[in-house]
Amino acid sequence: MLDREEILETLRMLLEERLDIRTVTLGVSLKDCASGDIEETCSLIEEKLLRVASRLVSEAQALEEKYGIAIVNRRVAVTPLANVLAPSLRKLSEEEAREAAVRAAIALEHAAEKLGIDFIGGFSALVEKGFTSADEALISSIPEALSRTQRVCSSVNVATTRAGINMDAVLKMGGAVKRLSVLDYRACARLVTFANAPGDNPFMAGAFHGEGEGEAALNVGISGPGVVRAVVEKHSSASLGEVAEVIKRTAFKITRVGELIGRELSRRLGVSFGIVDLSLAPTPFPGDSVAGIIEAMGISRCGAPGSVAALALLVDAVKKGGTMATSYVGGLSGAFIPVSEDAGMAEAAKEGTITADKLLAMSSVCSVGLDMVVLPASTSASTVSGIIADEAAIGVMNNKTTGVRVILAGREGERVELGGLLGYAYVMPVSRHSCEAFVRRGGRIPSPIHGHRN
Amino acid sequence: MRKERAVVTVIGEDHPGIIAAVTGVCAELGINIEDLSQTVVQGLLTMTLIVDITGKDLRELQRRLERVAEEQRVRIIAQHEDIFRYMHRV
What is the ipTM of this complex? Predict the structure, then answer.
């Protein structure tokens, strides 16, 4: 029989501590949509997405009602589009190919709109070692593709521990962020540059349906910073070993809900269950903050000395608890520190306690990296490339995923509104010293010795 | 057929008629109550019922209880039991 205390604990997590399922993301292969003609490719893409993902929204809603838990986002991720578009772009000029890639982004937008989902990911290229001509066309089309759509998310993988860092791609991505910021800075929230990108990540903007994935798979992103913060606050005099233990137990419970929803939804949709991503994803709502967890551990403001250690403890405990709770762990699995989407982070940034440099240090122990950070509009493309290179180096050397999602807007210290769940951010200072000569050298930074484990 | 249960939780200011209203809905829908417990702390009622919904429509029970919640000015949540089972056990 169910335990009354456990029932009430579950309800407290759901009703007071904002426990929810952050996202259910259906990965769909578009490999069979590739054709020699761009118009045909686009219509095959739309037709397939509408067929495979048609019941995603309604079935997710049915599960929300059945279990009384909010599923905040329903999303779709597709095969990195550069690979799907390659045959269509083969005979086109550089300019025509770029326009064709924009046309494909609009096809994704149409499909997403008809499906009733807020984001579709996979306007992507995997270029850690080099570019195909389709990769180049897609990357050059990103600013226009994202500024002409509302739902399309783009990610580019520029580095892996096995291949090293493609600095030509890093240079291009700095330029893409700069141009997109000029066209529509809010759209930068839909563009992430990765090192070691996973092909089963359910979170946007970086979700895509990776190489080696099957026809379709459902991946789940859990939530729960509010729940973890509450339990850490309750143990205010516990040692850090005990704090790790209570976080582990809490992460287990949160992840079990993800497992339940993932299994049932994939069964209802007739697709395979991919993974549960063990990432704590914050929202701008009060208390639902990763910074809040760090502060509950005894750091007076996130970013102060001790923050990296506190974050490391948190991420490790979440993984240990979560791994016991699900059969398949994947995606980014750690903790997100998106500055604008986390009210605690945004406030720490306002006071200057959190800086881009501190975030860089924190990214060596958490999920992503420089995420939803607003830098001054005057920041040069080469400085963005330098930041991407630094993040990629942390990912490559530590054999982990890192990403950069920066927005160039406003002046240092100014408040920039990004809207909705994206929150707001204060513009962070950035180094005035140039790295232009470094990033313009191009070429590939070789993979580290520990990348070769065979 | 596997037995399916739902957990109904009622939270709100205690007053006469709440149990009658909630259990009345269960009776009308032919839903058996397997367990019922309640506490009242400083006038705040917390009641949990475990009910057998095998072959019944959980949505219909939820809709009917929404009306009761409005009439009785309390909060009522009806959820499939698996969310509680899954969360606390492997």
Answer: 0.93
